[in-house]
Amino acid sequence: MMDFLSAHFTVTCRPLFNLYFMYLKYILTGVALLIGGLLAVQGSINSQLGNILKNPFQAAFISFLVGTLTLFVLNVLMREGLPTKTTVAEMPLYLFVGGVIGAIYVSSAIILIPKIGVATMLGASIGGQMVVASIIDHYGFFGMATHSISPGRIFGIILLIIGVVLIQRY
Questions:
Q1: Alpha helices in the chain (DSSP H)
Q2: Which pLDDT value is given to residue 5?
Q3: Dihedrals φ, ψ of 54, to 5°?
């Protein structure tokens, strides 16, 4: 009986698993696109918050406070707990810069979106991300796996930047 089930699984289910893993990269890219859409919503909401408070840094603080509380609740619900003091003390200092960069990004978005619009702000920030990400990939900075800069990647970044200029102009 087990031989029959094993053979049946191999014939009917394994191709579905292979298909799933073959397209997993595309599925995850689709998820990333949806999350990217949420950044436009976040920027718009935070910009309104900044207008109401008349202070972009207070708006960013409230945004981060709500985000921090959300992450705390998720950690409690998932029973992850908090990292130990030893773990935090042993981490390289540059790993804490991510929070600073996040604060700069959110505050800048709150300031820039009313002036240049959501599409231009996000397009320009994505262009900047692609330039820096390509450099990080190429050299493997921060312990990342290396992915060489290719003419196709460079052309894609140029097209992205041209797109930003077109979005801003029209």
A1: 2-12, 14-53, 56-77, 85-90, 97-116, 118-139, 151-169
A2: 52
A3: 60, 25
Q: Is residue 3 part of a domain?
A: no
Q: In the prediction, which pLDDT does 12 show? A: 59
Domain assignment present for 4: no
State the pTM of this model: 0.77
What is the CA angle 43-44-47, rounded to 5? 85
Short-list 165, 91, 86, CA closest to 124: 165
Take residue 71 and report the two structure tokens written for it.
């992450």
First to last CA, the chain: 67
- Give just the sign of the alpha carbon dihedral 108, 114, 118, 124: negative
The residues, any chain, with a CB within 8 Å of residue 94's CB and separated by 6 or more, are 142
94, amino acid identity? Y
**Does residue 113 contact residue 43 with C-beta atoms inside 8 Å?**
yes
- Residue 47 tokens read as 């910009």
Q: Is residue 2 part of a domain?
A: no
Per-residue confidence (pLDDT) for residue 168, from 0 to 100 = 85
pLDDT of 101-134, one tens digit each? 999 999 999 999 999 999 999 999 999 999 999 9
The answer to whether residue 90 sits within a structural domain is yes
Tell me which DSSP letter residue 91 carries. S
Query: pLDDT > 90: what percent of the chain?
Result: 70
